[in-house]
Amino acid sequence: SSTKSFKVVLIPGDGIGPEVVAQAVRVLNVIDSSSPEIRLQLESHDFGGIAIDNHGDPLPDSTLKACKEADAVLLGAVGGPKWGVGKVRPEQGLLKLRKELGLYANIRPASFASDSLLANSPLKESVAKGVDFVCVRELIGGLYFGERKEQGSEPQPEAAWDTMIYSVEEVQRITRVAAQIALTTTPPMAVHSIDKANVLASSRLWRKVVTETITKEYPTLQLDHQLVDSAAMILVSNPRKLNGVIVTENMFGDILSDEASVIPGSLGLLPSASLAGAPVVSDAKDFKPCFGLYEPIHGSAPDIAGQGIANPIGTILSVALMLRYSFGLEKQAKAIEEAVRKALDSKEQGGLELRTKDLGGNVRTEQIGEQVVNILKTLL
Ligand code: NAI
Ligand code: MG
């Protein structure tokens, strides 16, 4: 059978970025050596604050070029107090990178890596148990990219406005991303589209195009529509009702995905993907890699950087998403998720579960990585 060869660019960045990426690299190396049919070529590049220090630019041309030639990018995090007041800031590199790579779909799963983490949720266990959904947020359109204007003179304009605008094509392509993600499980996940169609014209278009696209191109998928205000309530009162794939416009997705991210109990646990296309389901005949940038949802955590105590789970689970969405390696993606679950369920000497500081423990970053890798080897 044919060899699947993929190029992965690592941009660890600043703060805890390099610490958590180092553990994810161990996982990538295990995947690579587990099968002669899978070849992962890794290379590291400067990005963020460290790139400002070394090149005077948070996104040097050489880094951008490497990312454009890669099949996927793994990012740690960027930023920190050292560059906070400068004219050139690390976060500018992040915005430019997303734009240059055409990443129009932001994917954030919210689920419990292990049921043993339910106690960390701010929601009651009976409400939080079994929460398992994927937020698909449109990332380069809508209110954040529509025309912005101020009327009147400085320093205090009399009025200001932002425009929420979507084209049919923009809604079609994000709907296809949501649909393809729904098809990565058996049976497929339900699709919940979220809008404000009772008020906004852009939302009425959104609802119409989502409905048409699913009906025509994905007739077997289950689709429903929720209003965004009601969805915000459901997320904390009965979140299992939204299990499946949530698809929504940029600002609604920004707010709802942050709301959803607190349910599993720590920022350090959650992965994300930003895609430049719709992923192809792994066993499809016409499988082509779908370019994506993968990163944990947290930032560079300067308060704990350099101590070796950051939680690497969000970054390790980002690798699972990379294998699933960019490389079509669903079996390996599942194995990583199972290894994470088993690692979180395993006990240290003394009977304590393996927990980093953000989850109330004192286990080090490296020990979590070690345990995940050891379990993963037995699963592949
Ligand atoms: P943050 O996510 O870095 O940290 C918030 C809190 O959560 C801190 O107390 C931190 O110690 C803790 N935390 C975060 N990740 C953790 C992990 N893996 N393990 C254990 N604890 C963890 O957000 P903050 O403090 O607002 O931002 C710090 C810097 O990161 C800023 O410069 C910000 O601009 C940048 N940032 C970068 C992002 C990115 O690269 N995509 C995203 C968010 C913030
Ligand atoms: Mg946000």
Automatic annotation (TrEMBL):
The keyword Amino-acid biosynthesis applies. Homodimer. InterPro entries: IsoCit/isopropylmalate_DH_CS, IsoPropMal-DH-like_dom, Isopropylmalate_DH. Catalyzes the oxidation of 3-carboxy-2-hydroxy-4-methylpentanoate (3-isopropylmalate) to 3-carboxy-4-methyl-2-oxopentanoate. The product decarboxylates to 4-methyl-2 oxopentanoate. It comes from the Eukaryota. This is 3-isopropylmalate dehydrogenase. It catalyses: (2R,3S)-3-isopropylmalate + NAD(+) = 4-methyl-2-oxopentanoate + CO2 + NADH. Its cofactor is Mn(2+); Mg(2+). One of its GO terms (cellular component) is cytosol. PANTHER family: 3-ISOPROPYLMALATE DEHYDROGENASE. Pfam families: Iso_dh (PF00180). Its EC number is 1.1.1.85. Binds 1 Mg(2+) or Mn(2+) ion per subunit. Pathway: Amino-acid biosynthesis; L-leucine biosynthesis; L-leucine from 3-methyl-2-oxobutanoate: step 3/4. Residues 7-372 form the Isopropylmalate dehydrogenase-like domain. Gene3D superfamilies: Isopropylmalate Dehydrogenase.
